# Entry
Amino acid sequence: MFTRSFSKERRPFGDPVEVSKSNPRFEPPPDSNLANQNLPLDIVLPGADQYIAQTGQLVFHMVGDTGGINDGAIVQTAIAEAMEAQITAAAATDKPLFFYHLGDVVYFNGESSLYPEQFYEPYKHYPAPIFAIPGNHDGDTHVRAGDTPDTEKTLTGFMQNFCDSQPRHNDPYRETMTQPYVYWTLETPIITIIGLYSNVEGLLDGRGTIEQQRWLEGQLQSAPTDRPLILTVHHPPYSLDTAHGGYPDIGNALDRAMKNTGRNVDAIFSGHVHSYQRFTRSKDGADIPYVIAGAGGYAHSIRALHQLQTGDNNNPIQVPFPTLVEGVTLAAYQTSEPGYMRITVNAQSLICEYFIVPFSGAPPAAPVDTFTLDWKNHKLL
# Structure
C-alpha cells in the first residue's frame, strides 16, 4: 500500500555492511598534477632508513577521529599525552617514529581556521611527525543547521597543513607536512602504507570515474613484495556498529583492486566509527585483519562512542563472532573507552596493540587487544 520511504532500514543482526546508497555525496578532490604520489619516510625523517636497518623494526602510532571540539579537547589531549609518554618511556630501539592519522582531523568541515585549536594545540608536545589521510569531515563542505557557512573549497585545510609543497610553520610548534596528495603512499624499507581518500560518503571515485581506483591498482602492482603492504581508508569496509555499518563501495573497490592485480594487502585500517573493532577475513587462504580505530578524541563520553549491535534480549556480542558475510569474523572490540594503536613491524611480523585512555582519567595500562600477523605467511598467530 505504501511506496514512499521515510526511514533508513535497520541492518539485520550480524550484518557488517550497510546497504549501498543510490546517490551518495561526492566532492571531487583538488586536482593533482603529480606524477609521483609516493613519499619515502627518509625524506621527512632523515636517518629513518638507517635507524630501521639498525633496530630491525619500525614502530608507529595510529588512530582517527580526533578533532576535539567537545569538553575543551580533554579526551584528544589525554590520548596525545599518552602517545607522547609512550615515546618518552620507550627504549631507544622501540620508539614510535610517527603518528599516522586515519582521518577526521578537524570537525566539522575541515576549515583551515580550526587547525590551531583542533590539531596543533593538542599535539604541540608530540615529538614526532604526524601523517594523515582525510576523513569525511575533512572534505565535507555541507553546512549543518547552526554551522557557520563554510566558504572554503573541499579539503582546503587538509591540503594546507598536510600537503604543503614546502614545510612551514602554520603554528609555532609544528611544521606542515609535505605529503604528495590526499591519497598517497608512504614508503619505508620495512613496510609500505597506501593511504586512500574515501570522500564524504564512502567512495574512492565519483560515479562513472576510476581515477583513484586506477591509482590504487598501480600501487598494488608496484609495491615491493619483500615487506608487508597495509592500506588505510577512513570509511571501514566492515563494522557492526548501529550508526554506520561498513561501506560496500569501499569494500568492493578494494576487492576489485586485489582481484585485478593478484595482490592482497596484509591489513586494512580505518576510522570513522567511533570505537575499536577488529575483524579477521579469510581470503584466498590468507588471514586479513580489518581494523577500526576511530575513538581518538572526538567522542568525549561513552554515549558518544558508537556501540555495537546487540542480539536477543539485548545481549552483547561475544567474540569470536561470525558475521553474516562469509569468511568475516569479529575478533575483538572496545566500545566503552577511547584509545589508540601502537604498531610494530619487523622482518616477520606485524604486531598491533590497542591501548585505552580511560574517561576516568586513570593512566593507560597494558593493551586491551593485541594481535600478531605473520605477514610472510599471511597468518594470524
In short: The chain is about 20% helix and 20% strand. The chain has a mean pLDDT of 95. Residues 38-380 form a domain with the Purple Acid Phosphatase; chain A, domain 2 fold (CATH 3.60.21.10).
